[in-house]
Amino acid sequence: MGCRVLLGFLLAAAAVIASVDCNSEGDILNAWKTQLSDPNNVLQSWDPTLVNPCTFFHVTCNSENSVTRLDLGNASLSGPLIPELGNLTNLQYLEVFGNRLSGSIPNEIGNLRNLVSLDLYKNNFTGRIPKSFGHLHFLRFLRVFSNSLIGRIPPNFGNLTSLEILELNSNRLTGPLPFVVLELVRFGQLKHLDVSDNLLAGTVDRTNSTRFRVTTIIQDPQA
Q1: Residue closest to 198 by CA, chosen among 152, 163, 160
Q2: Full-model pTM
Q3: What's residue 3's pLDDT?
């Protein structure tokens, strides 16, 4: 009898912990919502009084009611990404392209170690590409083109061996293209690499084949 009571207590405690985690993710999303301008009321369903965020429009959860997708592309949103988004530990898809989001990209986005797709393109982001992106080992699609990003491409992007598409074009990036990134085209999974329309050092090289397409600036060996 005592074992049954203890088991019941442990199961109840686990349910409470899961509920707290889900509520925490809801709190994160609602904290972000308060900092966004949403003229089309896309986020109207994001109600902080709900038990978890899995009934929010544009949010997908797994079987444990943890957020795995945010689909907010072309939603006319403006405002920042907040660092707390880095605590959505099961997030696999962060799709916020085609908005008017601004400010720097938080380093904490690099904490989303389960990310498969990160689409921040066609916004107004400024500052540098976070080096923490080099920790996103499951990332397959990284598109941040058409922003106002500056600085160098982080060399640790060479760690992103699962990457299939890397689009950094139409920013204000400087310096050479790290050779380790080109190695992802030759020896990794990278099929499409575009860093054109930046301020990178080197010469233009365009390669087309059935396996990959490159529109890039090749590193100047004298740089």
Answers
A1: 152
A2: 0.84
A3: 44
